[in-house]
Amino acid sequence: MPPGRPRVAVIGGSLGGLITGLQLRDVGCEVDIFERSPVPLEGRGAGIVLHPVTTRYFEDHGLLDLGRVSSSARTLRYLTATGEVLLEEPIAYRFTSYATLYAALVDFFDPSRYHLGKDLVDVADGPAEIRALFADGGDRSFDLLVGADGIRSTVRGLLFPDLRPAYAGYVGWRGTLPERELPTRAREELRDLLTYHVGDRTHVLSYEIPAPDGASMNWVWYRNVPDGGELASLLTDRSGVRHDLSLPAGGVRDAHVDELRGSAAELPPAFTDLIRATREPFVQVIVDLEVPAMVRGRVCLVGDAAFALRPHIAAGTAKAAADARSLAEAIDAAGDDVPAALAAWEPAQLALGRATTARTREVGERAQVTGTFRPGDPDVAFGLYRPKDGNYAAH
Ligand SMILES: Cc1cc2nc3c(=O)[nH]c(=O)nc-3n(C[C@H](O)[C@H](O)[C@H](O)COP(=O)(O)OP(=O)(O)OC[C@H]3O[C@@H](n4cnc5c(N)ncnc54)[C@H](O)[C@@H]3O)c2cc1C
Fold it and tell me: How high does pLDDT run on average in the chain?
């Protein structure tokens, strides 16, 4: 990179922010990451499907030991409602947990430049630099500000105040269960596999993820919930607070958890047992969100702040990583000319965001709305650029 070292503020210190911060740092930028949460984002979240595009950079730089941070599955199995094997196919997917990946990445970022408890509230964009203003009254100037602040992005809200996530008509009930607590059928029938069951306008899947004391079985059950009163009731927590995009573990009211456990009788028995044994299932609302542009002046958006993808192709973190990688390459190529770098970077990432949004929405619609999700259909496989590129064997 030529002489000027761009000063970069990354807003959001989750996976997208860390991946972006590390890669920009490594092409010579002076990077500070600002995270709203006052405490590290440890011990939270559930399963994440890894993609080669997410991990390659970190493996190449000796920052990530895949064997340590992930588990793998070699077989994708579809079950019938009564638990018979409908179909099997070979895969080479790797799975991690949010907490494991976060801990691995945050370890490699200079702690004095990873600022917790810093809530961005406004930006003042000028021709030569950009000023970030924080809720605590502090402000600092930078050459580039990257909004990696997720689905509720403040940065996006400043650029596109009218843009809101659009409810897809269904939620993902999610949970994890330590392997030592797995009921016998779940242990015997779900371990070492990626397992799916596709029902009538519903589907459920499970895979194993690393956990601090061994491994956990991670599951997601997509269920249609009409917008309005039913959704509002589900998203109202134990203390009466109404949530919008998710309800964390421990927050879901007993009546809804009881209903979930009762309805799990319609699933293959191994899933029924798994879901009933999970102590604190939680809810993720499935939405579509896409921006019309990812760059404005010296501000850009990456990851979920720009395109929050439905989870079906498991590409959210991979897309954040792809945004980060290409941003670092564009900055490296343009030196200290940040506007030129952003202009070169934006078109391909916008195209990628639009294409992945359309593909994962199509999978969701087939599974939950039109009932045309067919087990084994290659179009529905995990992938960022194309179905199945989430496989490690392909790389
Ligand atoms: C705690 C946590 C747990 C998660 N667990 C899972 C999981 O188990 N499985 C899964 O598939 N996905 C999970 N996700 C989402 C996943 O990280 C993203 O879908 C994907 O990796 C893209 O990440 P992102 O960094 O763009 O967005 P996010 O991961 O949503 O991160 C956005 C970050 O920005 C911060 N932020 C928001 N506003 C501001 C502001 N104004 N100023 C400063 N900081 C701000 C937020 O606190 C958050 O840490 C989780 C996200 C979080 C934050």
Answer: 94
Is 316 a pocket residue for ligand 1 (Cβ < 6 Å)?
Answer: yes
Enumerate helices (H) and strands (E) in the chain, giving the number of each: 11, 19
Residue ID of nearest Cα to ligand 1 atom 53: 14
Distance 150 CA to ligand 1 centre (A): 5
**207 near 95, Cβ under 8 Å?**
yes
CA 221 to chain centre: 16
Q: Which CATH number fits domain 71-91+168-286: 3.30.9.60, 3.30.1330.130, 3.40.190.170, 1.10.600.10?
A: 3.30.9.60
Question: Residue type at 24?
Answer: L
Task: State the distance from the centre of ligand 1 to the C-alpha of 21, rounded, in angstroms.
Answer: 14
CA atoms in the 13 A half-sphere facing the CB of 241: 8
* DSSP state for residue 331 in the 8-state scheme: H
174 vs 265: CA distance, rounded Å: 16
Q: Say yes or no: CB of residue 187 within 6 Å of ligand 1.
A: no
Q: Report DSSP letters for 131-158, one per residue.
A: EEEETTS-EEEESEEEE---TT-HHHHH
Between CA 1 and CA 330 the distance in angstroms is 10
Question: What's residue 378's pLDDT?
Answer: 87
Residue 41 Cβ contacting ligand 1 at under 6 Å: yes
Structure tokens at 226: 């009409």
Dihedral sign from CA coordinates of 313, 358, 386, 323: negative
Fold of 7-67+99-164+288-380: FAD/NAD(P)-binding domain (3.50.50)
pLDDT above 60 for 179? yes
d(CA 231, CA 196): 25
Judged against a pLDDT cut of 70, whether residue 1 lies above it is answered with: no
Residue 3 is predicted with a pLDDT of 56
